[in-house]
Write a structure and sequence with these properties.
Number of strands of chain A: 3
Largest sheet of chain A: 3 strands, antiparallel
Distance between the termini of chain A: 43 Å
Number of domains of chain A: 1
Shape of chain A: globular
Strand content of chain A: 5-15%
CATH class of chain A: Mainly Alpha
Oligomer: homodimer
CATH topology of chain A: Arc Repressor Mutant, subunit A
CATH superfamily of chain A: Winged helix-like DNA-binding domain superfamily/Winged helix DNA-binding domain
DNA sequence: CAGTTTATGTCAGCCTTGTTGACACTCCAA
DNA sequence: TTGGAGTGTCAACAAGGCTGACATAAACTG
């Protein structure tokens, strides 16, 4: 780590494109792009009493209906207390329904209600509009590269969750 | 928005790759990847008394030494009260130095101290290691696509900030 | 010069969303 | 029957956003 700012560039091989400057630009691109990515749903949520945490819960429940609390916990990477606070409000507001498991009655299976689905739709429409525009501007090859790099950036467990959701959705 | 889940796929043109399912996968990829992206610096920061907000401030001061408070405010997109809380601790901890402007004495120009640079290096090394691995695995074409899409996702002002930093760094 | 605007700092208070620790309940499995 | 897993909940706390209000100094403007 003490070999300076061109640690990866001096090799002179096919990894020349990995200068520290390129990597720094990659970081900054992630930072600025993530802001854009969340901006539209955030605006909608601000008017309701909800935040990004609610959005995430709604998104993943909508994506995998009947998922258990524990499953959701792993996907979201927060503590159960944190998730529970969010779920409690969503359930009492009638956006999410919690059903006791049929086989294992300790488990709660989570579903969106009609209202929940409506909000999910509204939020993801807003988010997708931006993504759609970005994908269209960038073109299919760029999108493929985008996805390849993002997948490579994930932690292995997250990559597994991602792959699982991906196959279930196709 | 009521035209269902294949709103963009039914056109049958070159935008076929923009199905809502593709877009949803894009969202989820962003979510999981961003978690990975911040994970390593977060681990380092947890041991100090600092958080992600400190990281961001240190990063951009290191990137554009002598930047003003107002400039940083625009880049980070937070309120001055929020930024000030972070800057105050960084300055009193001797990681950041604040100099009164030469021309305009109302402005404060921000610089990293030697200690600040050391922490910045440590944090960005951790972050770059992951990015480097991801870029290497994905290859140059994928990286180009990654950057193209991210740039297209940004708000216009953010894209301007990004471009400005990019040219200053090269 | 007087008045306004700009750049910055700071105080106080609020919200969301994360954390830990503790405890209770239900139920499955050995 | 006992241990452990899955869940819910209470309390307390911290980070880091936010708004509103106010202060100061410097720069700009008529």
């Amino acid at each position: 780590m003490a070999d300076g700012r061109h640690s990866s560039a001096v090799r002179g091989d096919s990894l020349l494109f990995l200068t520290d400057e390129q990597l720094r630009q990659g970081s900054e691109a992630m930072f600025f792009a993530y802001r854009g990515f969340t901006a539209d749903p955030d605006r909608i949520l601000a008017d309701l009493t909800y935040g990004r945490a609610h959005h995430r819960a709604i998104h993943f429940i909508g994506r995998a209906p009947g998922t258990t609390v524990n499953n959701l916990l792993n996907i979201l990477g927060v503590t159960k207390q944190s998730l529970n606070r969010v779920l409690r409000t969503l359930i009492s507001d009638g956006l999410v329904q919690s059903k006791v498991g049929r086989n294992d009655k300790r488990e709660r299976h989570l579903y969106l209600t009609d209202d929940g689905r409506a909000l999910e739709q509204q939020l993801s429409d807003a988010q997708r509009a931006r993504l759609r525009a970005a994908f269209r501007d960038a073109g299919p090859e760029a999108v493929a590269g985008f996805r390849t790099v993002l997948e490579a950036m994930m932690d292995p467990e997250m990559r597994a969750s991602y792959a699982k959701l991906r196959e279930s959705g196709t």
